[in-house]
Amino acid sequence: MDPNGGSSSAGAADGASDPAAARRRHSKKPKYSRFTQQELPACKPILTPGWVISSFIFVGIIFIPIGLASLFASERVVEIVHRYDKDCVPASYRNDMLAYIQSNETNKTCTRTFLVPKQMKSPVYIYYQLDNFYQNHRRYVKSRSDKQLRSRASENDTSSCDPEDVTANKSAIVPCGLIAWSLFNDTYGFSVNNTLLGVSKKNIAWKSDQQHKFGSDVYPKNFQSGGLIGGAKLNSSIPLSQQVDLIVWMRTAALPTFRKLYGKIEVDLEANSELTVVIENNYNTYSFGGKKKLVLSTTSWIGGKNDFLGIAYITLGGLSLFLAISFLLIYIIKPRPLGDPTFLSWNRNPAGHFN
Amino acid sequence: MAGGRRKRQHFGRIHAFSCGRASFNGEHSLIGGPGFSRIVFCNDPECFEAGQLKYGGNYVRTTKYTLATYFPKALFEQFRRVANIYFLICAILSFTALSPYSAYSTVFPLVVVVGVTMGKEAVEDWRRKRQDIEMNNRKVKYHRGDGVFDYAKWMDLKVGDVVKVEKDEFFPADLILLSSSYDDAICYVETTNLDGETNLKLKQALDVTANLLDDSRFENFRAIIKCEDPNANLYSFVGNLQLEEQQFPLTPQQLLLRDSKLRNTDYIYGVVIFTGHDTKVIQNSTAPPSKRSKIERRMDKLVYLLFSALVFLSFIGSVFFGITTSKDLENGVMTRWYLRPDDTTIYYDPKRAPVAAILHFLTALMLYGYLIPISLYVSIEIVKVLQSVFINQDPHMYYEEGDKPARARTSNLNEELGQVDTILSDKTGTLTCNSMEFIKCSIAGTAYGHGITEVERALARGKETPLAQEVVEDEDNVEEINETKPSIKGYNFIDERITNGNWVNEPRADVIQNFLRLLAACHTAIPEVDDETGKISYEAESPDEAAFVIGARELGFEFYERTQTSISLHELDPMSGRKVARTYKLMNIIEFSSARKRMSVIVRNEEGRLLLLSKGADSVMFERLAQDGREFEVQTRLHINEYADAGLRTLVLAYRELDEEEYNEFNEEFSQAKNLVSADREEIIEEVAERIEKDLILLGATAVEDKLQNGVPECIDKLAQAGIKLWVLTGDKMETAINIGFACSLLRQGMKQIIINSETPGIRALEKAGDKSAVDEAAKANVIQQISEGKALLNVASEDSEALALIIDGKSLIYALEDDVKDMFLELAIGCASVICCRSSPKQKALVTRLVKVKTGSTTLAIGDGANDVGMLQEADIGVGISGVEGMQAVMSSDIAIAQFRFLERLLLVHGHWCYRRISFMICYFFYKNIAFGFTLFFFEAYASFSGEAAYNDWYLSLYNVFFTSLPVIAMGVFDQDVAARFCLKFPLLYQEGVQNVLFSWTRILGWAFNGVLSSTLIFFFCACAMEHQAFRKGGEVVGMEIFGAVMYTCVVWVVNCQMALSINYFTLIQHVFIWGSIVFWYIFLLVYGAMDPNISTTAYQVFIEACAPALSFWLVTLFVTVATLLPYFSYAAIQMRFFPMYHQMIQWIRNDGHSEDPEYCQMVRQRSLRSTTLHVDILNLDFKKFMFSFPFPLLSNQTEDLHC
């Protein structure tokens, strides 16, 4: 008899245990596991009044102190902001500031004096602030060659630097690109009560930039040698890794109003002392209507002066507490128990399902 | 098999209709012509001519791809999606100067997404491949030569090979039957795999080859078969066999199809004519149906919406960019000189600002591409596959007896399962078991059988009449009896007056004897004797027939052998009280057809008398009774009506004696008619039969019960509570259908029934007159009138909130489905709580399905088990096949297969509901997260004079969708549950959230989109204000683009992931790992990426370690932005949850308050689920409104137990 014929053709009345056992062995019955049964242990949080109110209170309690601390820190920062782009143009050029700045003949030196309102503990950071300057423009951002900046071997790697890639006789510009070409070139000299203050440029650039992105064997070459001079020139005997102004400048800003670190003064500035700044006003922001500001600022643990974060934290904390109270009140005044079905969407709609 | 060769008999006489011998005419003349050019050299596949023909081998490939075609084909499939095309174009453009970011970072996510999808395809195909390998390596005996048969693999068979197939083996290819173990070369074939029919088919070889009975005789056998080319038609075959210079016609009668099974026959010899992909079954195989869910279709619209948003944003950007660019040169003077507008490229040329703007438009399209969720499709596909696994693995949908788990054949429709509005159900085999039980009979005007049917039980339950007690008592009795006696399938007859041979003592024992004898003899079943136990089982064409034979056997008339000319019974002899064997000579079988509604056999008994035994529907049988045969007519009719009321199928049994002369005349006419080859053959046969089936003597009537499947009434009740409408489309009689309706709680007492029926006397009279157009017109007018009457009732009923049921018969349905009436009909049908269509054809089933689907626009689910349901299953939005007794046809064309109707409850209410929620939330969330991200880019652009510079590092951008936000949403799609399964079942109305589509309405989608815009606005402006221009850290360094990007991106990652944490209802460990893991992974990524060589990491180099991490303000900004951005949503959610809870949220409240076991609470929420269509309406009498508002709700209760995560 055919060996595989037996089981399948067995009659209906045949209730022998053998095939049943076989079926059990090869059963297609799904195996039980908490995973496939979707019964994994889980917590099922819902927004109960308790949870809602306690989270609001929690946020309030945490945020208000943070906000106060931040605001306090920000308030402690002493900041002097001085706009000089207009005032440093002689009255005779006021109507054509562009001609003034583009001319080689004019005297660009300009001296400004102002009082230090509060004591400024060292280090006092010196920033220049530019307005309406789109360092985040795509053409501008892309116009650099990181490879070239990094090592002498890739000196000719200037393909991304258009239009400041090569000189007229096709030799590579180092550093190439629009960013480097438009390097900020105003300079500041400080004196307090007629004593000259040293400006330190130490550690104003990122350490990683100096060590890994700007090569110590790469020297400026053919820089600002074309017909059109953009900004500052570089000392071609100093390697790029030491050109901190350039390094700072090449960290492009995110927004069109930005500050860049110029240097630091490493002595305390006393309150009410008279600070004199000698500015070499070289940089052309006049053609695109950008402002130039000189900023002196101390820092705290939160960074520079900006009250936003502190105020925001306090506001949010306060809002949370307010919401906590409002929810508390609503829950007390209008305790709607669960399950009022009249609020179901399909019950509100008279033309609902069963009409 | 014990029996050897059987006697040579003319089997053709039994199966009157199936063995018409074809002669050379009609199609056979086409052989050799176009379409009929196949030539097979039998038993000589290696000969030269055969080699020339180059027919394919028997290797069958069902995979979609081969190694060579996989890449091109699978890639093509991928890029048929609009979104993917867009990303492909972006990827190509990213190699040009237009690109805002590096090419690799654009290509990478596309490669990942496409790669994952293709990987999934490959895995699926590999599974098919393994099946193929198994199939192709099956063994079969084939003729190796010299009369020796040997095993070969299926795939090695060639056209022309002679194979020997043994009992219960599958045919390896399409064969022409040459001979079999039977003398007259017949064999039985089971075609369940092909058409789902379970009855055995009879095949017979040509006489000329029937003598090839030994292996050795094939040594010198040579023949040539010329036949049609491969085609998909299973039921036709044209060819001829050339043997020894003679031609013999071949018909489907000799054709054995691949994948069908040899049964009841020891072995056959056959010659292979079609192999592999030429076989009819493979030619017939169609790809599984591809349906798309409503949600997915809406999702496509959403993608288009996002595309338009993308185009709009890009357009705005381009206009501004054009304007600012044109201002770069004013009268030849450079304004923004640092951009060198005097020496520029086309992209930034102020002199050609419009061109620059247009090119910028392309750049912007790429830049804002993050609005389009690239990973949406692949994520959804992954999620759906996993959801299908859950459906397949659900032990609550596993059918122990049949060893059948649920099987989602397609994962496309998971969420559609949560939106079903109307279920269209088959009755037989779907609601019922399709296993008939012989339960009652009426013999000689006396009703026998005490069994209580389920319908009676249900009716008794509904009425709560004294009968209920009886029933309960009876039920106990039944159970006792059942305990003592092993139950026999197909038999549930309890009446000690008849059983155990007691019938001989009944007053009309002679009639009872005739009755039982008729049951045992008048059928087409085939007995199968178990050699070991001696027990007999039957192979019957329908379960009804099996029930009769089994019933007769149990009552003492055991049918044990059928030969071609005789039927043998073991009968209880009333005189001696012993079993005697009696053989009846089988003269003719007049088969059953749906037109005739009856079947008869003519037999000659041992005394030599000729008897016509007949059984049929009451409507045709009573009119054929002789005047003196109507002795019991009144009582029998009464009983039949009672049986119909009890939901039983009834047949009337009658007989008559024939005299020789009459028979001979009939036999001659009958054989002539059978041998006719004209189109009206059947009609002529019918006519001949009509003449002999008259003047019958009534014996009685039988009643068989088609048992309801387990749990059907409860399931239907649940579905009704869930607001799902159930239409039953059945082929049954109206009375039966109505009774089943009652039994399964589809109809209930006190429901008003609207019955639309074309069987009115007026129409019948017209029919008799034979005027077809008049009948049509009258019937149509009648139907229209009935429908409008029904509608009038509907209006009245809606005021009284009375439930209506519509019952319509097939004939009326024809008119109701006509174009001008169908709207009216549908309106009526929708207004009714239950709809039953009786006597409907498969085509009508499909038409009704389409009508409901198209006209109401709601989601339809069709469920059925038989081949007649296929149309309906394919037409409906979701086709659910019952993998029951009726074979695989329905399952093969279904989207989801389950074993029992009751599993529908869990499939829809639990899996459907969950899948709907998950997928709809998934899509909303995808849009949210991409809008939240994409808009920050746009805002940044506004501060970068729309130059197309991205705020973030290239790799941050491209990994956003791949790593930092994708896993939590996938985990949500797989695991999230609003409420546990038992609550889904406890509160069925929850299901309406899907039907009403409240979770994926346009308001909700736009709400999420708005939330996305809000989030991105807050993130960007808070970041911009917090990190304006002041020093960022103590060392005085200010914020550059790289820090700004990293901080903002950190905020986005936090916000988007915390938003997910806020929105999901079900935190498993996996959720925790994925959500918090994604955030942690972002920091890890920053560390690792930042540590890479600056050539790779570019602006991200050391950003985290050197600048962000040491700066306290970085952490403060992140914390603030995250909390501030989520606060609006949190407040909204808190208010909504508390004061405008959706249904699932109410249940969550109940669960959370620990009241889930408190019946009062549950009733309160459930009250809405109790509809007038359900059975349990009366349970509820509480004044809920009062209760609800007087109930003091604890304000700050200790509900935290559940929340310790």
UniProtKB/TrEMBL annotation, chain A:
Q: Where is this region: Disordered?
A: 1-34, 144-165
Basic residues bias locations: 22-32
Main location per UniProt? membrane
Coiled-coil segments on the chain, per record = none
Residue ranges with Basic and acidic residues bias: 144-155
Has keyword Transmembrane? yes
* Listed GO CC annotations: endoplasmic reticulum; Golgi apparatus; plasma membrane
State if Transmembrane helix is listed as a keyword: yes
Q: Where in the cell is it found?
A: Membrane
Q: What's the domain of life for this entry? A: Eukaryota
Report TM segments.
51-73, 308-333
Sequence ranges of Low complexity compositional bias: 1-20
Q: Which UniProt keywords apply?
A: Membrane, Transmembrane, Transmembrane helix
Query: What is stated as this protein's family in its record?
Result: Belongs to the CDC50/LEM3 family.
Q: Which PANTHER family match?
A: ALA-INTERACTING SUBUNIT (PTHR10926:SF72), CELL CYCLE CONTROL PROTEIN 50 (PTHR10926)
| Protein name according to UniProt | ALA-interacting subunit
Q: Which organism is it from?
A: Vitis rotundifolia (Muscadine grape)
UniProtKB/TrEMBL annotation, chain B:
Instruction: Give the annotated active site.
Output: D426
Chain segments annotated as transmembrane: 83-101, 107-123, 302-323, 357-378, 926-943, 955-975, 1005-1027, 1039-1057, 1069-1092, 1112-1135
- Reactions this protein catalyses: ATP + H2O + phospholipidSide 1 = ADP + phosphate + phospholipidSide 2
Xref: SUPFAM superfamilies: Calcium ATPase, transduction domain A, Calcium ATPase, transmembrane domain M, HAD-like, Metal cation-transporting ATPase, ATP-binding domain N
Q: List GO molecular-function terms, semicolon-separated.
A: ATP binding; ATP hydrolysis activity; ATPase-coupled intramembrane lipid transporter activity; magnesium ion binding
Which parts of the sequence bind ATP?
D426, K427, T428, E545, F592, K615, R649, T730, G731, D732, R839, K845, N868, D869
- Report the membrane topology from the UniProt record: Multi-pass membrane protein
Q: Which residues bind Mg(2+)?
A: D426, T428, D865, D869
* Span of domain P-type ATPase N-terminal: 40-107
List the GO biological process terms.
phospholipid translocation; protein localization involved in auxin polar transport
PROSITE patterns for this protein: ATPASE_E1_E2 (PS00154)
- A Gene Ontology CC term for this entry? plasma membrane
- Signal peptide location: none
P-type ATPase C-terminal domain span: 891-1141
Q: Which Gene3D superfamilies match?
A: Calcium-transporting ATPase, cytoplasmic domain N, Calcium-transporting ATPase, cytoplasmic transduction domain A, HAD superfamily/HAD-like
Q: Which UniProt keywords apply?
A: ATP-binding, Magnesium, Membrane, Metal-binding, Nucleotide-binding, Translocase, Transmembrane, Transmembrane helix
State what this protein does: Involved in transport of phospholipids.
Q: What is stated as this protein's family in its record?
A: Belongs to the cation transport ATPase (P-type) (TC 3.A.3) family. Type IV subfamily.
Protein name as it appears in the record? Phospholipid-transporting ATPase
Species the sequence originates in: Vitis rotundifolia
Q: Source organism lineage?
A: Eukaryota, Viridiplantae, Streptophyta, Embryophyta, Tracheophyta
